[in-house]
Structure formats: structure tokens, C-alpha cells
Amino acid sequence: MKKNGYRFVLLSALFFLIVACSNNENEAGDQEQGEEETDGATEALEIYTTIFPLEDFANKIGGEYVHVTNLVPVGADAHTFEPTARDMISVAEGDAFIYNGAGLEGFAAALIDTINGETVAIVEAAKNIDLIDTSDTEPSEEGHAHEEGESHAHEEEHAHEGEDAHAHEEEHAHEGEDAHGHSHDQDPHVWLDPILSISMAEEIKNALIELMPEQEETFSSNFAELKAELEALDAEFTAMVEQAEKDTFLVSHAGYGYWERRYGLTQVGISGISPTSEPSQRELQRIIEFAKENNLQHVMFEQNISTKVAEVVTNEVGAEPLYLHNLEALVEEDVQQEEDYFSLMRQNIESLRTALQ
């Protein structure tokens, strides 16, 4: 806590120092900005986001009227990312800061406190979503709670009628906080559910309309197109699950609870809600035994998460690796191939189609 407090004080001091030094630069730019507005050009809104889905949705809704920057770099992890002082300055000078919320971004609270009083709009995309609560059940010392003699216990612990019995996630919940101080009493990975993503996109649309009301028709039209595409993606996901032979998949970290709730799937997460929470040796052995008993022939790796522990399970089980994209952040290959939310989610559908055979 002392280290975090020192870091916050230091970043705050740097923030005010850089702002003071940049006043002259801002004043010098006022005349240039005025000339641009006189010419009739509409200046794009400066939007800052924390995860790729928010960046992608903001671009799709805002179009030419937004310039979107994602704070979390390519290949990084939003769970552990920490912004620089310059990042904070940039956000403070922007028009909107859009973050997921639900405890995903451990840096968000400090950043918001630092920029408090500035004119930047603060948008919590997941604020109106019914989150999965991972603290309903006490953590079990039995690892992923696959009790001896009950080969289907995992199904009971994942009651799919809207219940939040994600026992394998709760066992990694760290009594509310992980080593980085991030709360994981709630599952923050809401963007993986296309229907919940509609709610997130609507928060973005509303914020853009408030910032640039003269473009309400454009933003509303773009949102309607995005909503229709998300609904179509949901239908594709549902069709894949209905055709699958299995409903259980083994994955490197337990970030897919919203697929469980929406589509009736069961994830077996090798790590917990946060990918930094590695399993104990006992938990790891139970995961391996469960995978063998249930003939899980694939382990799903993720694009921005260490594969060391997952590789142990893969080798012990004799499974084949597959890849899921958690969409928190892109990797260089995604950037080069110009992937978007929908192309990555459709890749996930195809990976699951193979894993659930």
C-alpha cells in the first residue's frame, strides 16, 4: 500500500508539473485551433480507452468524428498495466476516458482521481451490466471443486440458469484482491458476451452524443449497425454451441464466465479470474485428472497471457493446443491483419467448435 501511495503521489506531482509546463503550448495552439474552426472543419473528439473492444466500438460508432487511443499497449494485459504520467496528461487533455470497470483496470481509480476536475468525460462502459459475482461461494481447498466420486460435480457448480456458481474462479479470487490490488469479486470480462457488448456500446454512443450533439444522427445510426452485428454474432455463437458434442473446455485463465451464463458452456480455468493467480500444485493435479477423466483433448491458450502453467497441463494430459482471444488487447499479428472485434470473436467460435467436438 505504501508503494502504491508513493506511486500515486509521484504521478500526481508529475501530472501537475507537466500541465504547468504545457500551458504555454496550449495557449499557442488556441489560435491555430480557432483558424481550423473558422474554416468550418469539425475537430475529432480525442477518446482514450483501456481495452480493445472499447477502442473498436468507439471507432465504429464515432467514425470520422473521433480519434481513439487505447492506453493498454499491444500485447499487454489490462489486469496489470500501469499508465505513465504522460498517459495521465493525455487523458486529462482529451474529451473522454472510457474504461470497462468491474475491477478490471487496477489503475482506473487512481487515474480518475488524478484527472478529477478536468473537463474530460469519464465513461464506465460496464456500469449498467448485471455482473457475475464470484464471491457468492466460499473458496474450496479442493482446487476446482471436482469432488472425488462425482464426475459431474463441475456441472452443479456452473448452474447455467443465471446462477453465479463459478467455483473454479472463486478459488482464485484472493479474498477480493490479487497481488496488484485489483478486486475480483466480480467477473469483469463482459465484452466477451455479444449481447452485453450492446450495453457497453450504448454507453459509448450516449457519451459521444453528449460531447458532439450535432452528430447525434450519425452516432445513433452507427450504433444501430453495430447492435445488429452483435446480435448476429450472438446467433452464430448459439448455433455453434447447439451443434457441439461437449459443453466443457479447458482454458488458460477463467475469464469466460459470461459464455457459461449466456450459452450454457463450462470453462475449466487453469488460472483464476486474473491470469496472475496461478493454481496450487494440488489444484493443478485435479485439473489434469479432470481433463483426463472427461476426455478434454484441447487446452485453450490466450494471446497475451503466459502459457507456462497451461503448457504443463497440455503435456500431462496429452492435449492439443488451441487459441482463444480474450480481446483485452491485440498482439502485433492482429494489428498487421487489421482484426476487429467481430473477426476475433468468429475465430473464437471456430476454436470452440474444435474443442467441443
TrEMBL record:
Matching PROSITE patterns: PROKAR_LIPOPROTEIN
Basic and acidic residues composition-biased segments: 141-189
Region entry Disordered, spans: 132-189
One GO molecular-function entry: metal ion binding
InterPro entries cross-referenced by the UniProt entry: AdhesinB, Bact_metal-bind_prot9, Lipoprotein_PsaA-like, ZnuA-like
GO biological process, one term: metal ion transport
Keyword Oxidoreductase: no
Keyword set includes Iron: no
Highest taxon above the source species: Bacteria
Ranges in coiled-coil conformation: 216-243
Keywords (A to Z) from UniProt: Coiled coil, Signal, Transport
Signal peptide (UniProt feature, chain positions): 1-28
Family under the similarity heading: Belongs to the bacterial solute-binding protein 9 family.
Protein name, entry field: Zinc ABC transporter substrate-binding protein
Originating organism: Halalkalibacter oceani
